């Protein structure tokens, strides 16, 4: 092997980046000596082997960053050595240059297929060798920088997964706490019955439904939808669940203790105004909520209701006629000093009332349109007059999921209160 150019003129302080350890494989001792001498002048740590078998043992023990291997050698050829070298498991990629007198295109293609990165045709020139090594160093630098970035990304993803799992676990626990706000999904009050549906679109949601009865003849029930989704909305529902507790009447803002003997239901418009004042008095809270809150005298079916920005309740008369109640109203927590209007009507035995969140009417259907109020009436009628209680709500929810667009899916919380009045 002959070097063209003066290798001694090349500076020994050149920075070849990722290439530190070089393996020279050649059956000619003289050619190895020439190559090793130049490489060491350029600052490399050099090991050498006189055949492919010995080179493989060195690579298994301590893989090099760069391999310079002759093509034609007794025993294992340079091509076979390259193939065996590429089969080794290694943490980092190594650059492989074949030294050959071959320059035919088909032979070069054969070497590339075997795993070689570059070729040097004999006789070698020192400047060309150094340039090819520099090119290899640039590739290895980029490859190792990419590997390091991938390692950092994988580490970050592992940390994110741990954090996600922790958050997911907390959210699952939060869902149990939120479900505890609705301890009963169905309850009978004499012949009448209230059934509840609560389907958050995520682990937790911003909808809340509930009922409470301070006496055998008086009943209150509500449907609430807090603005937004997720943790903040869920925290607000937890707070509202305390304000409208079905267990601790002394904490329920919709009730008032009378004569230290019993609790009475306050008028719905007073309850809405009180909640509005409380929410606006809390600094740092940007959320608001819509609500329908209703009370009924089970003895005569006298229904009193307040609507605060919530969808219009659907009244289903026993003769099959339907009508929407209410005039809209202002959501709670938006404006101070809002006056809420009470709506009154009478229910007859066999009448049913449905309170629902806008997750129903704003649900996207397969045709791309929203369900809207008319669509809700169709779904309700499809459920049939014979279905009642939780069975009715389950059927209503199932029919909605069958009609909704798979592309959008359930993108909002769903909740409903179904009241069946059967007289006293």
UniProtKB/TrEMBL annotation:
Name of the protein in its database record: Fused response regulator/phosphatase
Sites bearing 4-aspartylphosphate, chain numbering: 70
Keyword Hydrolase found: yes
PANTHER family according to UniProt: STAGE II SPORULATION PROTEIN E, STAGE II SPORULATION PROTEIN E-RELATED
This protein's record includes keyword Transcription: no
A matching Pfam family: SpoIIE
UniProt cross-references to SUPFAM superfamilies, sorted A to Z: CheY-like (SSF52172), PP2C-like (SSF81606)
BP-aspect Gene Ontology terms: phosphorelay signal transduction system
Occurrences of domain Response regulatory (ranges): 21-137
GO MF annotations in UniProt: phosphatase activity
Gene3D superfamilies tied to this protein: 3.40.50.2300, PPM-type phosphatase domain
UniProt KW keywords: Hydrolase, Phosphoprotein
Coiled coil: none
Naturally occurring in which organism (per UniProt): Ruegeria marisrubri
């Amino acid at each position: 092997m002959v070097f063209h150019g003066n290798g001694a003129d090349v500076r020994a302080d050149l920075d070849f980046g990722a290439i530190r350890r070089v393996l020279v494989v050649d059956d000619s001792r003289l050619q190895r000596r020439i190559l090793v001498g130049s490489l060491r002048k350029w600052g490399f740590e050099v090991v050498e082997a006189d055949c492919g078998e010995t080179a493989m043992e060195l690579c298994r023990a301590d893989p090099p960053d760069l391999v310079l291997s002759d093509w034609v050698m007794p025993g294992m050829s340079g091509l076979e050595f390259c193939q065996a070298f590429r089969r080794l498991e290694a943490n980092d990629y190594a650059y492989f240059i074949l030294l050959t007198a071959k320059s035919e295109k088909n032979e070069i293609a054969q070497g590339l297929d075997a795993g070689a990165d570059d070729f040097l045709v004999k006789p070698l020139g020192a400047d060309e060798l150094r340039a090819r090594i520099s090119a290899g160093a640039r590739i290895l630098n980029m490859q190792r920088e990419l590997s390091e970035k991938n390692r950092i990304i994988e580490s970050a993803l592992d940390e994110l997964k741990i954090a996600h799992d922790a958050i997911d676990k907390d959210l699952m626990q939060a869902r149990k706490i939120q479900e505890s706000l609705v301890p009963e999904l169905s309850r009978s009050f004499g012949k009448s019955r209230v059934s509840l549906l609560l389907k958050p679109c995520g682990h937790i949601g911003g909808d809340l439904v509930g009922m409470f009865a301070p006496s055998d003849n008086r009943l209150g029930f509500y449907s609430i939808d807090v603005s937004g989704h997720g943790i903040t909305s869920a925290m607000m529902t937890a707070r509202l669940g305390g304000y409208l507790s079905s267990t601790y009447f002394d904490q329920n803002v919709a009730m008032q203790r009378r004569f230290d003997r019993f609790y009475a239901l306050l008028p719905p418009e007073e309850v809405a105004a009180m909640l509005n004042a409380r929410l606006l008095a809390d600094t740092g809270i940007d959320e608001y909520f819509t609500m329908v809150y209703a009370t009924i005298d089970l003895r005569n079916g006298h229904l009193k209701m307040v609507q605060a920005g919530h969808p219009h309740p659907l009244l289903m008369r026993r003769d099959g006629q339907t009508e929407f109640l209410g005039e809209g109203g202002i959501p709670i927590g938006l404006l101070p000093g809002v006056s809420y209007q009470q709506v009154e009507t009478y229910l007859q035995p066999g009448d049913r009332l449905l309170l629902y969140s806008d997750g129903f009417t704003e649900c996207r259907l397969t045709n791309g349109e929203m369900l809207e109020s008319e669509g809700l009436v169709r779904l309700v009628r499809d459920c049939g007059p014979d279905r009642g209680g939780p069975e009715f709500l389950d059927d209503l929810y199932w029919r909605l999921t069958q009609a909704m667009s798979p592309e959008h899916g359930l993108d909002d919380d769903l909740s409903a209160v179904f009241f069946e009045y059967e007289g006293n």
